[in-house]
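Re: the pair you flagged

First of the two:
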Amino acid sequence: MFQKILIANRGEIALRIHRACHDMGISTVAVHSTADADAMHVRLADESVCIGPPSSRDSYLNMPAILSAAEITGADAIHPGVGFLSENARFAEVVAEHGITFIGPSPEHMRIMGDKVTAKQTVAGLNLPVVRGSDGAVSGEDEALAVAKEIGYPVLIKASSGGGGKGMKVAHSADQLGEALQLAQSEARANFGDDSVYIERYLEKPRHIEIQLFGDNFGNAVHLGERDCSIQRRHQKLLEEGPSPVLPQDHRAAIGKLAAETVRALGYRGAGTMEFLYENGEFFFMEMNTRLQVEHSVTEEITGIDLVREQIRVAAGEKLSFTQDDVRISGHAIECRINAENSVTFMPSPGIVKSFHAPGGPGVRIDSGLYGGYRIPSNYDSLIAKLIVHGADRTECIARLRRALEEFVVDGVDTTLPLHRRILDEPAFITGEYDIHWLEQLLASDP
């Protein structure tokens, strides 16, 4: 087992990894930018190293600085967390070249799944269902028009690289396709340095269902149920729950088994998540994230399995500590992403947290590095806390979540807490009858 792990990330996920390490008796090294010198994960880590100025490019994306920090502190493994370098195959290779273990899948699998076109082609060859679309990246408007005519409008144009909803545009007719294609390519180039895009059929009212997966070096592969991530704004998830309130048990079992078989066939190692669109009883593969997900906490609450601990064990060469038969889904869990944003305009709201009160009580978990007096920097993602609530069933879970949201206090900056309170009062959420467009349609109806 590792003696010391460097955490190449920040915020709540860095703190989450630190806690798992300490539970396992492993020392931690926090790396941080100058803007994060007072962050909670830096304060709690056994050692810390400043790796650069506030800009992510010069700090959390600075491979030489991170590797130097690992070498001078004697870390024998690096956990990349989520975002930043967590799905960068070259970073995983360089880490290994320095004799340090990268806690994650192989660079090969990161490359396969990091390109959405290659990923779709790969899983389609292993019998996973995919949305109809182009066989690969489209070369220009003429090819795009031909593909769209064949599969039918509306169509979705998507960046081959990256994620987070960037480089995605919808065209409802041939007249809209040219402009949508140019916008998607421009956005993809600006965000990922790659302007290649592909086209697929745009589903009208799908759910966003993702399957948590795990593999090890011994040919074992399991799934840990699903999470419903359909409550989104501009393709950014705001609330996730598990199990999905709409999946029939036979559909749940079938897609979980198929996803696990795909991971086994690939020889995949570590944690991963396959994301699907689900409409009219059918699943369609979208992409696979070769890392831990922000919403992994939902799965932890309904399975009782520490996913970060399992990541570390598998990276250290150990077998999965459980089999598929050991996985039991118990109760219901919901996660709210609390962002430092205005809940109406969604403008970021960095600044000093004057006071912070986390809710508590049965079934309530907070993953956050906030504290009174902490300055939220303007340089990074606006996620400042995750509120995760577990109950014996969905009704109890919602009741506990409503109570927890009423107790939650973050004073000094705007947050999305009011939006989450509003969502819980909406009949469509209570009944579970929502899709990936529901929240945006709700917000668009506001005067």
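Second of the two:
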Amino acid sequence: MRQQIIAYCGLDCMACPAYQATIKDDRQMREETAANWSKEFNTVLKADDINCVGCLAEQGVLFEHCQVCKIRSCSRGKDLENCAHCTEYHCQELAGFFAMSPEAQERLDKIRGSHDGS
């Protein structure tokens, strides 16, 4: 089974192309990801913007959005492993995110279920 790094929001960092490009130091993957994300999110990203060692990292480079992510900031402020362990799960901020990423909610729901002893 493939290892996972579950971000505060429930995304799997190891499946993220920014993480993969950084770990592999793959310029082509950075260029492709920048082009794809620029189109998908209606923004302008360059290959040099595609660097991240995972949202849970204490040190190292994070993708631009991860640096200002409200979900990440909240979880870190509460010293949580991820949002599944929060007493306010799932909050309004997560609900909006889950609308875009239902697989993240599935991961956190599963973690929460095992955390609650279900």
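The CA atoms of residues 2 and 21 lie 17 Å apart.

-B.
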